Every structure is written in C-alpha cells, then in structure tokens.
Amino acid sequence: MSAVYASIPSTPRFSEQSATPDSSFEIRQLAAPLGAEVLDLNLDRSLSDEGFARISQAFSDHHVLVFRKQDITPAQHVQFSRRFGPLQIHVLRQFQLPGHEEILQISNIRENGKPIGLGDAGAFWHSDLSYKAVPSLGSLLHARELPDTGGDTHFANMHLAWETLPASLQKILLPLRAEHTYIKRYEEQRAKAPWRPALTQAQLDEVKPVVHPVVTTHPDNGRKTLFVNEHFTSRIVGLPQDESDDLLQQLFAHSIRPEFIYTHKWQEDDMVFWDNRSVIHLAGGTPDDQRRRLNRTTVEGTVPV
Ligand code: SIN
C-alpha cells in the first residue's frame, strides 16, 4: 500500500474560526482535521430549538464537539444526550453508574477491590457499538476525574480515510460488507485485564455478530465514510480469511494516518460528543498510579447504508 499512498494528497490544516450570528455561544473549529469547541454554553439547562439546530449542524460538520466547563449532573448529561435520540444500554451492566442505567462508567478506579468502570475501554481503535445491528449515532463522554498525565483520547476522521483511498480500491470496497462482533478481542482483553467479567450466555446473545457495509453514507452530511475498525470488525463477508485479514489490516492502517487524527487532551469538566458514524477513536491509556473517571452515554443511530 505504501506506493499507492505516495500519490494521496496531504490533508490541509484548519485554523479558521467560525463566528456565530446569534452568539449566545461560540463554536470554534479546532486546528485539526476534525473537531470544534463549544464555548459559553451550559448544558445544565435545556437548549433552545435554535441552539440545538446550531449544535446539530456543527456536529455534522466537525464530527467531534468539545463542550468546555460542564459541571453538570448525570441526570443533565442524560437529558442533553436524549435530545439526539434514544440512548443505548451497554452490555456490561456491571459498570453502569448507580441509578443511571444509560451511563457507562469509564474508569480505572477500584472501590473495595472492585472496578467501578471499564478501565480499558477503547484500547483499540473503534466506533462505539458498531457490533450492534443498529449502531451508535454518537457518544457523549463527560470528564469527572482526570489524571495528571496521560488519558488522552484520539479521534480519526473516517470521511478523510475514505476520500483519500485510491479510486481503484474504492471501487473494490463499495459493494463489500463486513462482520462486526463485540467478542472479537474480548478474551485478549480479559487475558490482560482479568477483572473483566466473563460474558454470560444472555450477554453473548445480546451481542451476536452483525454485518454492515464497508462503505457507508452519513445520513446527515451525505458524505461517504469507511466503516470498519480494528476492535470489532472481524472479516469481510465472502472473502477467504487470509485475504480478508490482509485487506482489513490495510484499511485499519490507512484509517489512522496522522493527518486524519485529532488528539483530545482532557480539561476539567469537558464533555466530548463524537460521531460514531464518521470517526473512530482510541483511548491513549492512563498510568496505573493515576485515577481517571468519565461518564459515557451512547445515542442510538440508524441502520448503516
Ligand atoms: C471509549 O472508547 O468510549 C473511551 C475513550 C476514553 O476513555 O478515552
């Protein structure tokens, strides 16, 4: 693939600021291939229809929105998330925030010897819940306790990944479909993190493998996107396993070229909303002696086409 990549043009850098006409809050594009900050907006109260329309448009345009300084409650987090659609309940119910089944705790903290959350969530590049027949529209992750070092989250723009593939490869990929499965790396993760619970039969039944197109069209912005990820995509349907593995490896490597990536360095009370239909993400990792705790909601999307 490297010879092919040599002909791919490099991604432009962005630095433009988009001022808002009615400016009760500001949306400022990040100097990265995706992402924007939302400033001077408190999510502790309900957003006007006009404000919601601006946020929705910015989400469609920038794929990752960083809402700064959100000292809000879990109930307010859930309420804001619900504006975008029904919320999905994660299969590992052990790690729900008590009293809020819609919130998955992402945390390396142990209380009374037991993990309170998924400490190794996002250890491989992925799109949340791509293993569901109806995957996620987006996820909202709210920082509650941050480490002094580490704990970054990386996001890769899958529209750019698709658009920079050679036309000959795009033509091959367009009709293909791929299997996604939650258990692809589950045992590998358990071997490294034995605190991960063994899945019950009921949990396994909830996450049976599904098949999605390799190339999807974003329902809001109409752009095509590469919809495969190393965490959950297990094979290309109809190809011998070795060919499927080769092709997927090639696509996984291409998807995370540095020019497609924004790295989020968390600040206190950040709420980050990302589009699982157009980005994949990776948790950069936290040193063992540092505490990290974030709350995540996941909004249901539509069947990918
Ligand atoms: C996730 O994959 O949802 C978690 C990302 C993170 O912890 O940075």
TrEMBL record:
Signal peptide as annotated in the record: none
Pfam families: TauD (PF02668)
Keyword Iron part of the UniProt annotation: yes
Organism field: Advenella mimigardefordensis (strain DSM 17166 / LMG 22922 / DPN7)
Membrane-traversing stretches: none
Keyword set, alphabetical order: Dioxygenase, Iron, Metal-binding, Oxidoreductase
Region entry Disordered, spans: 1-20
GO molecular function annotations of the record: metal ion binding; taurine dioxygenase activity
Domain TauD/TfdA-like: 26-298
Record-stated family: Belongs to the TfdA dioxygenase family.
Gene expressing this chain: tauD3
Keyword Metal-binding: yes
Cross-referenced SUPFAM superfamilies: Clavaminate synthase-like
InterPro entries: TauD-like_sf, TauD/TfdA-like, TfdA_dioxygenase
Protein name from the UniProt record: Alpha-ketoglutarate-dependent taurine dioxygenase
